[in-house]
Amino acid sequence: MKGTKFQLKVWKYLKTIPKGTVKTYKEVAIAIKRPKSSRAVANACGKNLYSPKIPCHRVIRSDGGLGGYSGRGGIKTKLRLLRSEKVDI
Fold first, then answer.
1. Contacting residues for 46 by C-beta, under 8 A, at least 6 apart
2. So what's the pLDDT on residue 72?
3. pLDDT 10s digits, 25-49
4. Does residue 56 have an active-site annotation?
5. What are phi and psi of 24, to 5 degrees?
6. Residue 23: enclosing H or E segment and its boundaries?
7. How confident is the model at residue 63 (pLDDT cuts 50, 70, 90)?
8. Does domain 5-84 have CATH number 1.10.600.10?
9. Which one from 56, 59, 60, 82 is the annotated catalytic residue?
10. C-alpha distances out from residue 85 to 29, 40, 89, Å
11. Cα 10 to Cα 85: distance, rounded to the nearest angstrom
12. In the chain, where are the structural domains located?
């Protein structure tokens, strides 16, 4: 994988999120011990070239909104992936 140290750290954590589960960008930031970096986590998800293998689709906004999805098909694909994992969105 190619990315910055921070991106690699985020992506590594994303691979630990179980199927059918979502985390917020803030929860991911806290989990990687960078609690004030929610926006940077969102940016790292946006730079993820390895989706859906690295499941950035499992990360949503704190207000319950989907946020973005940089994979093929954009937000429609994110929604489809989450629904296929039985996430109630």
1. 56, 68, 70
2. 87
3. 999 999 999 999 999 999 999 999 9
4. yes
5. -90, 160
6. strand 23-24
7. very high
8. no
9. 56
10. 23, 26, 11
11. 21
12. 5-84
